[in-house]
Write a structure and sequence with these properties.
The complex is a heterodimer of chains A (about 240) and B (about 300). With about 240 residues, chain A is of the alpha/beta class. Chain A has 9 helices and 12 strands. Chain A has a single domain (about 1-235), classed as P-loop containing nucleotide triphosphate hydrolases (Rossmann fold), CATH 3.40.50. The termini of chain A are far apart. Chain A has helices at about 45-50, 75-80, 95-105, 110-120, 125-130, 140-150, 170-185, 195-200, 220-239, and strands spanning about 1-10, 10-15, 15, 20-30, 35, 60-65, 65-70, 80-85, 155-160, 190-195, 205-210, 215-220. In chain A, about 40% of the residues lie in helices and about 25% in strands. In chain A, the strands form 3 sheets. A 6-stranded mixed beta sheet of chain A has the order 8-9-10-5-11-12, sandwiched between helices. A 4-stranded antiparallel beta sheet of chain A has the order 4-1-6-7, covered by helices on one side. By secondary structure, chain B is mainly beta. Helix content of chain B is about 10%, strand content about 55%. Chain B has helices spanning about 5-15, 285-290, 295-305; strands spanning about 25-30, 35-40, 45, 55-60, 65-75, 80-90, 95-105, 110-120, 125-135, 140-145, 145-150, 155-165, 170-180, 185-195, 200-210, 215-225, 230-235, 240-250, 255-260, 260-265, 270-280. In chain B, strands 3, 4, 6, 8, 10, 11, 13, 15, 17, 19 and 20 form an 11-stranded mixed beta sheet that branches. In chain B, strands 2-1-5-7-9-12-14-16-18-21 form a 10-stranded mixed beta sheet, with helices on one face. In chain B, helix 2 (about 285-290) packs across helix 3. Classes of the chains: A alpha/beta (about 240), B mainly beta (about 300). The interface between A and B is medium-sized, with 21 and 22 residues. The structure holds adenosine-5'-triphosphate and magnesium ion. Magnesium ion binds near residues 44, 45, 87 and 161 of chain A.
């Protein structure tokens, strides 16, 4: 359902061209959970942002449900059914949690549904509904509200960029349950960028991105050797 | 009950969010004269003899009461100046809902200068809400120049909530607050939206004369088009006191926002802080809203509305 072909992102920084995403191709099947992992700075977030239209690629093609969405703007991709949870969600002065989630749900969201949504990411609804999504929320709280904003409505494809980052252990197991539920009970395809073993365990397939390239893609057994090799390799090359 | 025409009612709906009713204590001023008014046992509204305007007497028995005093101008070319004085007895607790809406369908300028003075007795609490709004297809300008003077005695609390929600071509706002009583408190929220070639200027002097007095001033504004805004808040501390001024503006298009903070400590125990920030709409926020399916314009509007909410 998602076909990514030969994506290249090559920005110019200080007059020097730098290849961040280098001919990346892969597919995500209907209802599949693909976990993208790999070393810091490898290009995972950049790739995810290209999929959502937040970053414009220099080359390549993205086909979603047989439709070429490469030239679509972010909101048009959202309307096609793609959801996106940022690695670093922005804060909004004056915006309440309830308002944000209502927007995320497409304009209307009952108080009960809003509370359920917050509970599903481990937040006590009563305390958060009317709070502002601003600097007064902790990093972990922000991340969980960000995830709730993607869970607020149905998608055909959800992309989560390091959803576990900054989240405490107890909430993390809740989160894993949410992802399992999303994966089992719906035909949504899911891409999760993660470094967490428990999330990697859940994957149907794993893709390793390093230096902007696909180092390997496949089931856990297929990819695990690549992962281990990749890590040792990364350590050695840094010395 | 006085008859209220449709245009006036629509303007009232914009400036009185509680829904204006001819009940309780109220005074509706339309095109330069009082259209209707009502008193309660604890709140008396008396027309001034020497100039246009009213004296509002609020007794200590007023607890949680409301006074609605909207002003509506629908006739083009009117220049309305009005003096309203509020005498709030010690211990009273009231909410005053004011506001001015101009509907100008002609080619002449319509102008309203509301000069308000508040004398707030010991331990009284006043919440003053004021909304300014302009509309109408005419080319005549919609001009509002409010002057607000506030005098606070011991333990008095004044909450000033002002908003200019669009359509006002020119505004010059002058505010003077004297915290003369011990422990008196001022809390100001100012919200301002300008567009096209509108101009807005706000000068605010807050003088903290008394021990343990405090002031918290939050100003949020959005300037679109080629509009211009100037803020000049000034906090003067003359005793052991606290003041905090925070001005935040979003600038768009070809607008111009100027923030000229002034803080003046004349006492060794005066603690005064000023923060000011002007910046464009946050890109990250726009991106996030777009991932929720909003287009650029919708996303911008959501950000502005929430910022000014
Ligand atoms: N517009 C740009 N111009 C120059 N360099 C960029 C640009 N965008 C991203 N980069 C660089 O590309 C690299 C990949 O960044 P990216 O955020 O995609 O990594 P990541 O795999 O998500 O890392 P992490 O695991 O730390 O989140 C980084 O070195 C980053 O600095
Ligand atoms: Mg990343």
């Amino acid at each position: 359902m998602l076909k990514v072909r030969d994506l290249v992102f090559r920005p110019i920084e200080d007059g020097v061209e730098k290849t961040i995403i280098d001919k990346v191709s892969f597919d995500v099947n209907d209802g599949e959970l693909l976990v993208i992992t790999g070393p810091n700075g490898g290009g995972k977030s950049t790739l995810a942002k290209i999929l959502m239209g937040i970053i414009k690629e220099d080359e390549g093609q993205i086909i979603f449900n047989d439709k070429d969405i490469t030239s679509l703007d972010i909101n048009e991709r959202a309307k096609e059914g793609i959801g996106f949870a940022f690695q670093q969600p922005p804060r909004f002065k004056g915006m309440t949690v309830k308002r944000l989630l209502t927007l995320a749900a497409g304009g209307s969201l009952s108080e009960i549904n809003c509370c359920d949504l917050l509970s599903s990411v481990g937040l006590c609804a009563r305390e958060y509904l009317d709070r502002e999504v601003d600097g007064t929320l902790s990093g972990g709280e922000m991340k969980r509200i960000e995830i709730a904003s993607v869970l607020a409505t149905g998608h055909k494809l959800c992309i989560f960029d390091e959803p576990e980052a900054g989240i405490d252990l107890w909430s993390f197991s809740m989160l894993v349950k949410q992802f399992e539920k999303l994966h089992k009970n719906s035909d949504q395809s899911i891409i999760i960028i993660s470094h967490q073993e428990r999330i990697i365990e859940m994957a149907d397939r794993i893709m390793v991105i390093k230096d902007g390239k696909v180092q390997g893609i496949g089931t856990k057994d297929e990819v695990y050797p690549v992962l281990v090799k990749g890590e040792t390799h990364a350590c050695m090359s840094e010395n | 009950m006085a008859n209220i025409d449709e245009t006036t009612q629509e303007v009232l709906n914009k400036i009185d969010e509680y829904g204006f009713k001819q009940e309780g204590a109220f005074n509706l001023r339309k095109d330069g004269t009082a259209l209707c008014h009502g008193d309660t046992e604890n709140i008396k509204i008396v027309k001034k003899e020497d100039k246009s305007g009213i004296d509002v007497y609020i007794s200590k028995n007023a607890q949680g009461e409301y006074v609605h005093i909207p002003v509506v101008i629908t006739s083009s070319g009117l220049n309305d100046e009005v003096y309203n004085d509020f005498h709030v007895e010690a211990g009273a607790n009231v909410t005053i809902v004011a506001g001015c809406g101009i509907h100008n369908s002609g080619c002449d300028d319509s102008r309203h200068d509301g000069i308000h003075a508040f004398y707030v007795g010991k331990g009284a609490t006043v919440r003053y809400e004021e909304k300014h709004y302009g509309e109408g297809p005419g080319t005549g300008k919609r001009i509002l120049n409010p002057v607000t003077k506030i005098f606070l005695e011991d333990d008095a609390v004044f909450i000033l909530d002002t908003a200019q929600i669009g359509g006002v071509d020119s505004t010059k706002r002058t505010t003077l607050v004297e915290l003369n009583g011990k422990n008196s408190k001022l809390n100001v929220t100012e919200r301002l939206l300008t567009h096209e070639d509108q101009v807005a200027e706000s000068n605010m002097d807050v003088v903290l004369n008394a021990e343990s007095s405090s002031a918290q001033i939050v100003s949020r504004s959005v300037a679109k088009g080629e509009s211009k805004q100037v803020f000049h808040p000034n906090a003067i501390g003359r005793a052991l006191c606290h003041a905090h001024i925070q001005c935040d503006s979003i600038i768009m298009d070809k607008a111009n926002v100027k923030s000229i903070p002034e803080i003046d400590a004349e006492h060794v125990d005066a603690a005064i802080i000023h923060e000011a920030a002007i910046g464009r709409i946050n890109d990250e926020q726009l991106l996030k809203l777009k991932t929720l399916g909003l287009n650029n314009e919708e996303a911008e509007n959501v950000i502005i509305q929430n910022f000014l909410n």
